[in-house]
Amino acid sequence: MNNMLVIIKKELARFFGDKRLVFTTAIMPGLLIFLMYTLMGEGLMREFTTEEDYIAKAYVRNMPAELESSLKELPVEWEIWDGGNPASDQVLQEIAEGERDGLLVFPDRFMQDMLAYEAGQGEAPNVEIYYNSEESNSGAFRSAAVRFLDQLEESVANKFDINRGEGSLGDYDRVSEQSVMGQLLAGLLPMLIMTFIFSGCTAVAPESIAGEKERGTIATLLVTPMKRSALALGKIVSLSVIALLAGLSSFLGTILSLPKLMTDEVDFGAASYTALDYGLLFAVILSTVLVTVAVISLISAGAKSVKEASTAIAPFLSVIVIVSLLPLFHLGGGGKVADLIPLYNSVMTMNGIFSFESSVSDVVITVLVNFAAAGILGGILTKMFSSEKVMFNR
């Protein structure tokens, strides 16, 4: 036990003694993610949204007198255009250059032809909407015009209503905001958490084991009178602490920046997780870190250099990503059987926690299975540390 604590203190002292390593491993990932997602979100909001009180400036040609009052209720400042063929006018150039938001062209005798038209007999009257999709204000004009015309078409041919008044109090869709928000987070966060855990483990484990083999410093530890099991457990525990810090940094950066990536309609407050939920999530993450560190430590122990270890670890990332994406596409499952598969059980259990569908028993089984898997892998690592052929590349 004392020897294991010595190894843990040695690894943690090496990590925390290097300020640059602490910053790049435990602080910079979360900081960069927060800044990147925040800037992306603000950029997308500026690109695809308009000011709440924005009034579009657009031309209209052949405006029917019957629709004049309704069209003027739209958030559009209309200017009558009586020119010839709009395709040959400077109006289109103004729209392309962003000087105007659009042009709405009604055909001659629009109301008469529309009311007289019967489906399947000849061509229906065609209303043209010219806009610039690269300009968010122009796109908003098009959307407003399309909604108006759709409502007009429904009012002319309407024979019955479906869910009249939907969108007000008494909505027919009875899904709760908590469920919607939970499903959104459940599809996204397990993948991000697993990726962050893997990245944190990869940042420290190869250097601690394969790096010491490459430099020859691990030989000093192997000749000391300590059990190989103490060395293996000391490495796994200390590396897990460091990897957990790195994963936590990235996780916090993502959580804090997610509201910036979503629209104003997304209410993050709807996902009201309790202290128990956070405790269960931490337990799952901790057990997942232990398994991941153990796997990467095994790969590193069998490698001759840090470069070789990193190359061998790369395919493992593909497995992590594939498994993590299963809930996003509503794949996977397996009930209690899924709880018995290390790492896969972590993804499915985290998905259940975020979607408010996980039980304490699922979490307990997942954690115990992961701890057992980490223990087995730690035993294998102990055997590898006891092998001169493996540790000295003979």
Oligomeric form: single chain
Q: Beta-strand level of the residues, as a percent range? A: under 5%
Order of helices and strands: HHEHEHEHEHHHHHHHHH
> Helical proportion?
55-70%
Q: Specify the biggest β-sheet.
A: 4 strands, mixed
Molecular shape: elongated
Instruction: Please mark out the parts with pLDDT under 50 across 5 or more consecutive residues, or reply none.
Output: none
Structure description:
This protein has 394 residues and is mostly helical. The protein has 2 domains: 258 residues, no CATH class; 102 residues, D-Maltodextrin-Binding Protein, domain 2 (3-Layer(aba) Sandwich), CATH 3.40.190. 64% of the residues lie in helices and 5% in strands. The chain contains 14 helices and 4 strands. A 4-stranded mixed sheet has the order 2-1-3-4, with helices on both faces. Strand 1, helix 3 and strand 2 form a beta-alpha-beta unit. Helix 2 packs parallel to helix 9 and helix 7 packs antiparallel against helix 11. The two termini are 30 Å apart. The model has no long low-confidence stretch (mean pLDDT 79).
